[in-house]
Design goal:
alpha/beta, 3-stranded mixed sheet, 48% helix
Length: 244
């Protein structure tokens, strides 16, 4: 299988599993990833989804052999598959966390950007080299200015140069960097922090975070008020206040 899915209680681990190709994304892998994520969106037992990968790298981007076979009539459908997988991550009703190591390149970086939080091992390299291949960075590369700011996103997509994990953290592309041997320990701590939240409140908060990226302030405030009211009555809140 090019995509593995395992469970540890309410935490679902989705792994890209094509290590012989540095987890480069081909059509079959993208379709499988999107289908698995779309199924998880309907799984009420899932509370956190962690996207990682087997082998030495998270993802080397789109499979270059696949890209070489594209033409003007088929290129749009291929990047549409990348968008479908990224959109499935963004539409999960639970937090999605990217576990990053090795190389995070091109479409692989777009998958990471589509997650809600990102933790990287020291030594991880990030790059958007598409312009060096004669094509622009597209689809969820549009998330990069929201994460990093327009200038830093421009640096990545215009130069094609790689940055390391420390710089990625300084620039806001990842939230935490740790030693490779501590990566799973840090992920476990983050998972527990997320599991401590109320499931309904987390789902609402995720939607609001995305709205705050996309909508005018007035619309964000209005929607926030409506969403806040929708969380009542809260059994957890009633129980907590009753103990005071």
């Amino acid at each position: 299988m090019k995509v593995d899915v395992t469970r540890e209680g309410a935490v679902v681990r989705v792994r890209l599993n094509r290590p012989e190709k540095a987890n480069a994304l081909d059509v079959a892998m993208l379709d499988s990833l999107a289908s698995e994520l779309e199924a998880l969106a309907r799984d009420e037992s899932a509370r956190v989804v962690v996207l990682g990968a087997t082998g030495r790298s998270f993802c080397a981007g789109a499979d270059v052999d696949e890209l070489a076979r594209l033409d003007a009539s088929t290129a749009g459908a291929f990047v549409g598959r990348i968008h479908r997988a990224c959109e499935a991550l963004r539409r999960l009703p639970v937090p999605a966390v990217a576990r990053l190591h090795g190389a995070v390149i091109g479409a692989g970086l777009e998958l990471a950007a589509a997650c809600d939080l990102r933790v990287a091992a020291e030594g991880t390299r990030f790059a958007m080299p598409e312009v060096r291949l004669g094509i622009p960075s597209v689809v969820e590369a549009a998330l990069l200015p929201r994460l990093m700011g327009s200038g830093r996103a421009a640096w990545l997509v215009l130069t094609g140069e790689a940055i390391d994990a420390r710089r990625a953290c300084e620039w806001g592309l990842v939230e935490e960097v740790c030693a490779p041997d501590n990566l799973d320990e840090r992920l476990s701590a983050l998972e527990q922090a997320l599991l401590s939240g109320d499931p309904k409140a987390l789902a609402v908060q995720k939607k609001l975070l995305q709205l705050w990226d996309e909508a005018p302030l007035s619309a964000c405030v209005a929607e926030s008020i409506e969403r806040f009211a929708s969380c009542y009555p809260s059994n957890w809140l009633s129980s907590w206040t009753g103990k005071r």
